[in-house]
Amino acid sequence: MRTALLAGMTLWIGTVLVLSELRWFARRPLADRLRPYVPGAPASPARPGLLSFESFRDVVGPMSRNVGERLSRLFGVSEELALRLERVHATHDVTTFRIRQLGAAVAALVVAGLVALAVRPPLVVALLVLVGAPLLAFLVIEQQLAGRSAAWQRRVFLELPVVAEQLAMLLSSGFSLGAALNRLALRGKGACAEDLRRVVSRIRQGLTEAEALREWAATVHVPALDRLIPVLALNSEAADLGRLISEEARNIRRDVQRELVETMERRSQSVWIPVTVATLVPGVILLAIPFTQALKLFSTG
Questions:
Q1: pLDDT band for position 44 (50/70/90)?
Q2: Quick check: 64 and 99 in contact, CB under 8 A?
Q3: Rounded to the nearest 10 degrees, how much is the dihedral formed by the CA atoms of 15, 18, 24, 25?
Q4: Which are the contacts of 246, defined by CB distance < 8 A and separation ≥ 6?
Q5: Residue 50, Cβ neighbours under 10 Å: how many?
Q6: Model confidence at 299: pLDDT above 90
Q7: Rounded distance, CA 84 to CA 151, Å?
Q8: Which helix (H) or strand (E) holds 89?
Q9: What per-residue confidence (pLDDT) applies to 94?
Q10: Rounded distance, CA 226 to CA 222, Å?
């Protein structure tokens, strides 16, 4: 009796939800009925379907964001997801990214469950697979975004000396800061040029050059750019801004060269690791032979 009552209530709720989406059953709101008779009124917005992506996003989105944020914090990811998505010029927002992560984790859980049912491993192994598969899927997507973010920061760091020198030449030749940024954004290629196009767009939206550049530095989070932006902010105060930017460009180039030398030194040192291992292993074997013979002689004597 109780099962039949629960089934009847579920069927009734589902029927009401389905019929509420049909125009002949659901009563239109008063605002929608009066809208055609109001001159200049906007068109009626389309209502999302019961099983549409919009309704699914509205239901699952907040939960996906909360769970994804907590898991990211748990595994040591401290940088905000919105900042990383903005840095790499992603076309989707935080909610869409977290929903995709949740979908990948659920798919991995289903696959792991099917594999566990087919193979029937021990209980501990099955639990590890069921827990590890969704976490691995979640972390793979998180690591992909982290890799894209780090690669974008690296590209900006490597392109920044050339961009700074071009800015110095344009400012020395009579261009204003806004005109120089616009010229580099239109004619340049690469990560800095794409970021400068967003800077120019923000200036057209009402921000000043200094505010838009500080916003760029806060998004990219590159120390060399953090040092360059205060110099560019002196546009309205310094008379010889081109010389100052040229000096900062030389400093950034020295940082790039210093990092390149450090990378070469680390690689040259890592070459000796297999050589050392290849030398020590035969030496240990050769020393072990007389040592074992000496132990045998002492034990027999």
A1: low
A2: yes
A3: 40
A4: 164, 165, 168
A5: 12
A6: no
A7: 11
A8: none
A9: 87
A10: 6
